[in-house]
Amino acid sequence: MNEPTKSFLRSAYKEYYFRGAGAIEFPAEIGRREFGYIPFGGGMVRHLSFKNEGEAVAEILRQSPSSVYCSNARYERPASPIDEKGWLGAELIFDIDATDVPTPCKRGHDLWYCEKCYASGKLPRPAKCSKCGGPTAEFHGTCEACLDAAREHTMKVVGFLTEDFGVEREAIRVYFSGNRGYHLHVYDGRFEQLDQLGRGEIAEYVRGSSLPLSQSIASTLRRRPQTGAVGAGWARRIARYTEERREDYGGTLQKLVSEAITSQRALVDSSVTTDIHRVFRLAGTLHGTTGMSKTRVTSMDRFDPQEDPFVLTAKAVNVAVSFYPQFRARHRDFGPYKSVTVELPTFAAVQILTKGLGEVV
Ligand SMILES: [Zn+2]
Ligand SMILES: [Zn+2]
């Protein structure tokens, strides 16, 4: 990333923060949170703390960094090294990323490219470019089908939390991550003190990966009367699903049980939920590789990921693009580009520039 590109990105982000600082959403007890940021072209700065919102906003404006993070944990001394912070508790968080949800469209928009000659092809990525022998990288695209799938899994997590864990719907805040998925923050005191193990169990529960083998679930179901779903949680979910379909189902009960699990599980990233010392993108701030904002979703039905998170301006900028596959931004199609200079609106240019696949000219 050259200097003109860095300075363009910094001022595009700064322009947003001047205008949109009010959209930044701070968690309770700011003074007990660890903050961090990544400057454009630089490494992560962690272990920062701020007394209040004003102090944090001033620093975000001053730095206009590529990413801003805040801990879900509260600490006695948030600016100290990890083992001296004094962990006080943390909100429960789920991360649902389109990357982790298998969708058939990925074959079309996920690819490898050569970092030297920009040849590209379908995954899996070869170790070396088939044309010039140069180093290769993967490009993961996003499409509406991917985001719909992520949205569906997010709704499933909400379902598990409210139905199986008795969490009030108002205690769950859903955010678009600013890239390819959703974050769920759960403000329910019962989870605050949970350690990694306990959080891991919840993540595995919603993923449906801690269940007995479908064969043994099926044999339990066979021993039960056909009607009247009993039990709670997954037992009730599976019984309800199989009972509704069993009569007309052609396959075995074991297969139907597997289907009941696959169709109801929520593919959250367990490693995110279990990490109790992590920092997360601060709501209302911009994503470092898309320029989209991490946006609070108040209605999953009305939220439009092709519009709502695009908060940068449409001001035109000339970009020399090395390589970039076709993409959609604000319902407009761009690309594909290869070794070409194009005039783009800022909100689209930033997608390319932040990934190091183009420079401002
Ligand atoms: Zn090559
Ligand atoms: Zn897709």
Protein architecture, described:
The protein has about 350 residues and is α+β, with helices and mostly antiparallel strands. The protein has 4 domains: about 210 residues, DNA primase, PRIM domain; about 35 residues; about 55 residues, no CATH class; about 50 residues, 3-Layer(aba) Sandwich (Ribosomal Protein L9, domain 1). Helix content is about 30%, strand content about 25%. It contains 10 helices and 18 strands. The strands form 6 sheets. The chain has a 4-stranded antiparallel β-sheet, with no helix packed on it. It has a 4-stranded antiparallel β-sheet with strand order 6-11-10-13. A 3-stranded antiparallel β-sheet has the order 8-7-9. Helix 1 runs antiparallel to helix 2 and helix 6 packs across helix 8. The longest helix is centred in the middle third of the chain and has 21 residues. The protein is globular. The relative contact order is 0.14. The chain binds zinc ion (ZN) (2 copies). One zinc ion (ZN) binds next to loops.
Helix content: 25-40%
What count of structural domains? Answer: 4
What is the CATH domain class of the largest domain? Alpha Beta
How many DSSP E strands? Answer: 18
